[in-house]
UniProtKB/TrEMBL annotation, chain A:
Pfam family, one: ABC_tran
SMART domains per record: AAA
Originating species: Roseobacter sinensis
Domain ABC transporter residues, every copy: 2-230
UniProt keyword Zinc-finger present: no
Bilayer-spanning residue ranges: none
PROSITE patterns: ABC_TRANSPORTER_1 (PS00211), ABC_TRANSPORTER_2 (PS50893)
Name under which the protein is recorded: ATP-binding cassette domain-containing protein
Single annotated GO MF: ATP binding
TrEMBL record, chain B:
Residue ranges constituting the ABC transmembrane type-1 domain according to the UniProt record: 49-253, 321-508
Subcellular location per the Swiss-Prot or TrEMBL entry: Cell membrane
Record's protein name: Thiamine/thiamine pyrophosphate ABC transporter permease ThiP
InterPro entries for the chain: MetI-like, MetI-like_sf
Regions that span the bilayer: 7-29, 49-71, 83-108, 128-151, 187-209, 237-260, 281-305, 325-345, 357-380, 386-408, 445-467, 487-508
Native species: Roseobacter sinensis
UniProt keyword list: Cell membrane, Membrane, Transmembrane, Transmembrane helix, Transport
PANTHER family, alphabetized: MOLYBDENUM TRANSPORT SYSTEM PERMEASE PROTEIN MODB, THIAMINE TRANSPORT SYSTEM PERMEASE PROTEIN THIP
Top-rank taxon: Bacteria
Length: 231, 518
């Protein structure tokens, strides 16, 4: 279980507090107004934003000071999720071993993951030779081989068109259902929440609220969320 | 924000930087052992200081003064060959000094083209030796540099401003006042400061065109004290003076020195709506013609004389060419071993703080470090067999500031874009170099290596201190041929040296860009 214990993040004038548990295996959307700190919250979980106070625990183990790569998390950012000079097989392979010294077994896993996301036969291509949707699939293949219990998505599909984005979210959904990973994803779109999320973390006014069941929350939003959603 | 977690690269950078500082500090120890500060600064030293400063000031001012109209003309004119000309403006940077001096002699020397022409008209002969020869050569080297710096500034003026100026129909005077003058105020002092610092430690030019009590730079005086009198105390004292002068100037100039315009991309021509008038167009054409002639004629002269001189070269030229090649390759290897970790380390720091270490290369002069090391080595071992390795090492140090300026900005970009991804994957250390930094920076690494190779192969500096008749580099051999009045053979050697410098640069630069990924 992922636990945020008295977490405080401060960057200049910006401050964010969080204190809650995330239920394992759930798909949780992180929503809230621009600048409220959704990405910062994910960054802190991923190990990119230092905490001013509090602890992050995974299965009762303190991971607050672990390096990003040592955490039980795979993360996709808004951009730069692939190295443009490496083939997508190499990009995905970095998720297995960061020195890319892959055994035959490792390579087979990479090929399998690429096939799973629908990139069979494109292993040798560079990201620049792929479409935006295919690039997203390649990044997801890497998440798959990273095989971490928590997946953090900081709007990696924001640059895709609506149909393609929905396609990617469906793919993410089936991938985490297969692996049983806990998913936390930042989004702006209530549609995405309805489509994907079981729980919602609402970030607003310097506080990230504890996860609430998505359906109940959207049907009867509290005033701040109502204002954000404009309903 | 709390201090950032362990950066993905840069672990060896402190050690590499420490080595650089240690090499320089060790030379100070050597100098300190021998320098008799109590002896004071005599009239000869004062003369050297005065000449060094005067020639550097004149060289800086004249280079920038001529560069302003040239850069302005190049910025606003488009003509066939413009791109080639601007590329050629980068050539003097990798042109061996001694080769350029021979070319200048062919044009401006006693029996050169200019004096032959003057003689035919019954006019008195102009001498290239002494202060004006030194300044002429420095302007030859630094006018292109200043032009590129200013051109870079000119091209930073957004096209929209010129459009606005055209829309308002501003007369040339107002275009200058509103657009160009503010830019010049910003760029010109930095360019002049950079050239001033470069000229302070000038050796090869002073060695060949200066000399005598009235035209000796400090660097040349170190060489003379060392070589002719073997007066290590005086050489050490002069070295410390050089350090104070050049180091102080480099520190002061650090604030104004602009980014070195080593990168390409200067051949982009803006559409300009102003300066269409006939008068300005003619003036620009004249300036471009005159400027290119000044820069290209000496190169052309080398080519011409060199082809004639090739068969007259003694075999020792080829042997010394082999030495030079070896020195250059060693310099490249040393440079990469130092510059890459240092650049990695600097890139993960705050902007501007750590680049200063690279400036040691500019302020600590080659002969100063060479003298210091000679004093240290001499009691333990015979320094002469070490002449070539020491030369290679010092040449690498001299190239370090340029290499850092080439490597650090793109390394910062790479880390800015991919640091998070690398850290989330646990990519660090050697794996980060292997899979991220080196592949992304191949072009810049090749460029830095090429520059180092060209600078090193053409360097005539510390080798002149250490060498004996059996051990020389090609530039030194060329100098010896010139001293023996074997000008044709020297010209042939110059052509070989030129081909080596350009060839090394081309090989490394192209190698870095070969099949480079987007």
């Amino acid at each position: 279980m992922l636990r945020l214990e008295g977490v405080e993040i401060a960057q200049g004038d910006f401050a964010l507090a969080a204190d809650f548990d995330v239920t394992p295996g759930r798909r949780t959307a992180v929503i809230g107004p621009s600048g409220a700190g959704k990405s910062t919250l994910l960054g802190a979980l991923g190990g990119f934003v230092p905490l001013r106070a509090g602890r992050v625990l995974w299965n009762a183990r303190d991971i607050t000071h672990d390096a990003p790569g040592a955490r039980p998390m795979a993360m996709l950012f808004q951009d730069n999720n692939l190295f443009p000079h490496l083939s997508i097989a190499q990009n995905a392979g970095l998720g297995v071993r960061p020195d890319l010294k892959l055994s035959a077994e490792d390579s087979a896993r990479v090929a399998q993951a690429l096939a799973r996301v629908g990139l069979e036969g494109l292993e040798g291509r560079k990201p620049g030779e792929l479409s935006g949707g295919q690039q997203s699939r390649a990044a997801l293949a890497r998440v798959l081989v990273q095989d971490r219990p928590v997946v953090l998505l900081d709007e990696p599909f924001a640059a895709l068109g609506p149909a393609l984005r929905r396609e990617m979210l469906d793919l993410v959904r089936s991938l985490v259902e297969e692996t049983g990973a806990t998913l936390l994803m930042v989004t702006h779109d209530p549609q995405d929440v309805r489509r994907m999320a079981e729980d919602v973390i609402f970030v607003e006014g310097g506080r990230a609220a504890a996860p609430q069941p998505a359906q109940a929350l959207l049907e009867d939003p509290p005033p701040a969320l109502r204002a954000y959603l404009g309903v | 924000m709390a201090p950032r977690a362990q950066p993905i690269i840069g672990a060896g950078g402190v050690a590499a930087g420490g080595c650089v500082v240690a090499v320089v500090l060790a030379s100070f120890v050597g100098l300190g052992l021998k320098a008799e500060v109590g002896r004071g600064i005599g009239p000869a030293e004062w003369a050297a200081i005065r000449f060094t400063v005067v020639q550097a000031v004149l060289s800086a001012l004249l280079s920038v003064a001529f560069a302003i109209p040239l850069a302005r003309a190049l910025a606003r004119r488009r003509f066939p060959g413009r791109g080639v000309l601007i590329t050629l403006l980068g050539a003097p940077f990798i042109l061996p000094v001694i080769v350029a001096v021979l070319g200048l002699l062919a044009v401006f020397g006693r029996t050169g083209w200019l004096n032959t022409g003057l003689g035919a008209l019954g006019l008195p002969e102009l001498s290239i030796y002494g202060l004006h020869g030194v300044v002429l050569a420095h302007v030859f080297f630094n006018l292109p540099l200043a032009t590129r710096l200013l051109l870079q500034g000119w091209q930073s003026i957004p096209a929209e401003r010129f459009r606005l100026a055209a829309q308002l129909n501003l007369p040339p005077r107002m275009v200058f006042r509103t657009l160009e003058w503010p830019l010049l105020k910003q760029v010109a002092p930095g360019a002049a400061a950079l050239i001033f610092v470069i000229c302070l430690t000038s050796f090869a030019v002073a060695l060949t065109l200066g000399g005598g009590p009235r035209a000796t730079t400090i660097e040349l005086a170190i060489y003379q004290a060392f070589r002719f009198d073997f007066d290590l105390a005086r050489a050490s004292l002069l070295s410390l003076i050089q350090l104070g002068l050049a180091g102080g100037a480099a520190l002061l100039a650090l604030w104004v020195i602009p980014n070195f315009p080593l990168s390409a991309g200067l051949d982009r021509a803006l559409t300009r709506w102003d300066a269409r008038g006939g008068g300005q167009a003619w003036a620009d054409a004249a300036i471009i013609t005159f400027g290119s002639a000044f820069l290209l004629l000496p190169l052309f002269a080398i080519l011409l004389a060199g082809l004639q001189g090739l068969p007259l070269m003694p075999p020792v030229v080829w042997q010394t060419a082999g030495n030079s090649l070896w020195v250059a390759i060693l310099s490249i290897a040393v440079l990469l071993l130092i510059a890459l970790p240092m650049a990695g380390w600097i890139s993960t720091r705050q902007r501007g703080s750590a680049e200063a270490i690279g400036l040691i290369g500019l302020s600590a002069s080659p002969l100063m470090i060479g003298t210091g090391w000679f004093i240290l080595i001499n009691p333990i071992a015979d320094p002469v067999p070490l002449a070539l390795p020491v030369t290679a090492l010092i040449n690498a140090l001299m190239a370090l500031p340029f290499a850092l300026r080439i490597l650090v900005p793109p390394m910062r970009d790479v880390l800015g874009a991919y640091d998070r991804l690398a850290r989330s994957l646990g990519l660090r250390g050697w794996a980060a170099w292997r899979w991220l930094v080196l592949p992304r920076l191949r072009a810049q690494v090749g460029f830095a290596a090429g520059l180092t190779g060209a600078l090193s192969v053409g360097d005539l500096g510390v080798i002149a201190l250490f060498a004996d008749p059996d051990r020389a580099t090609l530039p030194l051999q060329m100098y010896r041929l010139m001293g023996a009045y074997r000008t044709e053979a020297a010209a042939g050697a110059a052509l070989v040296l030129l081909a080596m410098a350009l060839g090394l640069f081309w090989l490394c630069d192209k190698g870095g860009r070969w099949r480079v990924e987007a």
